[in-house]
C-alpha cells in the first residue's frame, strides 16, 4: 500500500489560467508553461463542444465493457478507463484544436504527435494509488520501441513530451497537481518522486499546486515535472488524458496503437492525421497496454467464468425451448 506523504498543497490559485479569447493569451501562456511547466487554457473549446464530448462519456461510464458492448474498461478498483478517440469526432477535434496545435508547435519547437489518449474516471476511494511522479527517466523504454538506447542527457534538454488533461466537469478536490518548475530539477534516474534525492524531493513536497479547473479547461504540462492527481480524496474525477511526444526524441512511435473509428477521420488533412498519430509504430502490443489489464485483477477469472456460464445457460435455455416447440408441433 502506498503511504500518504505530507506535503504543502497550494489551493485556490488562478494565475496559471489563460483565456483563449484574449488576443495575447498565447504569449502569456507560453511564458507560463516554459517557466513553471504547466498552463491552463480556458475557453479553448465552446460549451457546445464540451457537452458533445460529455454525452458519450456518460454513456460509456454507465456500464462495463462485457461481451463487446460499448462500456468502460477496468484495470483495478480505483478507476474506469476508455479509449478517448472512440468517443467520436468531437474528441478528435479537441486533440486537433488549431489554436492548441499552433501553441504546441511553438512550445516543442519541433514536430510532435499524439502518443496516447484515454478517458479516465477516478473513483475517489480515499486512497493513494498514483503518487507524484515524472513520466520519464533514463531507463524509460517500451518493449517494441525502436530506440537502441535509453533516454539520455541531450533528450532531457528538449521538451520530450507534453501531457494534456481536459476537465469534463468543474473540479477542485481530486484535481490535477503539479510542482511548479520541477521539470527543471527532476531526477533523470527515477520517475517516482519518492525516489528523488532528498533536496529535490523536499522541494517538490513543499510546493505542490492543485490545479483546480472548470468544465472544458485544458491543462498542458511538461511530462518531466512532478505531477499526479490529488490523493487521497473521497470524490470522483472525470477527465480526458493524453500525451504529445517529440518526434526528434521518439521518431514516430506511439505508446500503443490508438483505436479510432475510420469514419471519424474523414475530412482530416495529412498534417492532422500525422499529428493524430496515424501511421505511427506502436511501442507495445495492445494487450500489454495498461488499460487492458483487467485480467490481472483477482476477480477477473470469476467474471470470465460467470460470463461463460451465463452464455451457456442462455444456449441451454434456447435448446430446451426449441425442443419444446418441436414436441408441440408434433402433437398438432
Report on the structure:
The chain is an alpha+beta fold and 332 residues long. It has 2 domains: 9-297, Jelly Rolls (Sandwich), CATH 2.60.120.620; 298-332. Helix content is 30%, strand content 22%. The protein has helices spanning 25-36, 47-61, 89-95, 98-108, 153-156, 198-205, 247-250, 270-275, 300-331, and strands at residues 9-10, 17-19, 38-42, 73-76, 79-83, 112-122, 161-167, 171-178, 208-213, 218-222, 227-229, 237-246, 253-254, 281-282. The strands form 3 sheets. The chain has an 8-stranded mixed beta sheet with strand order 2-3-10-7-12-6-5-4. A 4-stranded mixed beta sheet has the order 1-9-8-11, with no helix packed on it. The chain has a two-stranded parallel ribbon with strand order 13-14. Strand 2, helix 1 (25-36) and strand 3 form a beta-alpha-beta unit. The longest helix has 32 residues, at 300-331. The radius of gyration is 23 Å and the shape is globular. The termini are far apart. The model has no long low-confidence stretch (mean pLDDT 94).
Amino acid at each position: 500500500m502506498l503511504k500518504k506523504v505530507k506535503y504543502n498543497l497550494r489551493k485556490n490559485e488562478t494565475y496559471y489560467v489563460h483565456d483563449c479569447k484574449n488576443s495575447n493569451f498565447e504569449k502569456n501562456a507560453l511564458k507560463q508553461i516554459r517557466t513553471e511547466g504547466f498552463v491552463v487554457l480556458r475557453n479553448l473549446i465552446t460549451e457546445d463542444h464540451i457537452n458533445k464530448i460529455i454525452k458519450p462519456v456518460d454513456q460509456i461510464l454507465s456500464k462495463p465493457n462485457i461481451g463487446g458492448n460499448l462500456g468502460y474498461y477496468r484495470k483495478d478498483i480505483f478507476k474506469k478507463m476508455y479509449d478517448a478517440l472512440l468517443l467520436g469526432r468531437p474528441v478528435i477535434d479537441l486533440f486537433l484544436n488549431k489554436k492548441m496545435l499552433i501553441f504546441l508547435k511553438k512550445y516543442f519547437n519541433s514536430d510532435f504527435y499524439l502518443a496516447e489518449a484515454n478517458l479516465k474516471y477516478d473513483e475517489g476511494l480515499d486512497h493513494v494509488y498514483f503518487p507524484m511522479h515524472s513520466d520519464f527517466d533514463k531507463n524509460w523504454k517500451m518493449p517494441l520501441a525502436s530506440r537502441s538506447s535509453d533516454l539520455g542527457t541531450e533528450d532531457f534538454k528538449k521538451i520530450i513530451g507534453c501531457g494534456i488533461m481536459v476537465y469534463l466537469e468543474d473540479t477542485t478536490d481530486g484535481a490535477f497537481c503539479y510542482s511548479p518548475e520541477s521539470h527543471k530539477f527532476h531526477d533523470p534516474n527515477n520517475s517516482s518522486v519518492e525516489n528523488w534525492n532528498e533536496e529535490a524531493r523536499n522541494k517538490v513536497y513543499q510546493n505542490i499546486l492543485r490545479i483546480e479547473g472548470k468544465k472544458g479547461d485544458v491543462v498542458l504540462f511538461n511530462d518531466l515535472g512532478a505531477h499526479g492527481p490529488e490523493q487521497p480524496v473521497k470524490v470522483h474525477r472525470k477527465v480526458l488524458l493524453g500525451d504529445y511526444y517529440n518526434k526528434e526524441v521518439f521518431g514516430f512511435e506511439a505508446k500503443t496503437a490508438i483505436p479510432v473509428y475510420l469514419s471519424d477521420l474523414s475530412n482530416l488533412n495529412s498534417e492532422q492525421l500525422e499529428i493524430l498519430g496515424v501511421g505511427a509504430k506502436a511501442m507495445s502490443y495492445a494487450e500489454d497496454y495498461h488499460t487492458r489489464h483487467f485480467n490481472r485483477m483477482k476477480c477477473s477469472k470469476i467474471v470470465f467464468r460467470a460470463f461463460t456460464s451465463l452464455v451457456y445457460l442462455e444456449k441451454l435455455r434456447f435448446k430446451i425451448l426449441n425442443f419444446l416447440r418441436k414436441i408441440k408441433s408434433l402433437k398438432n
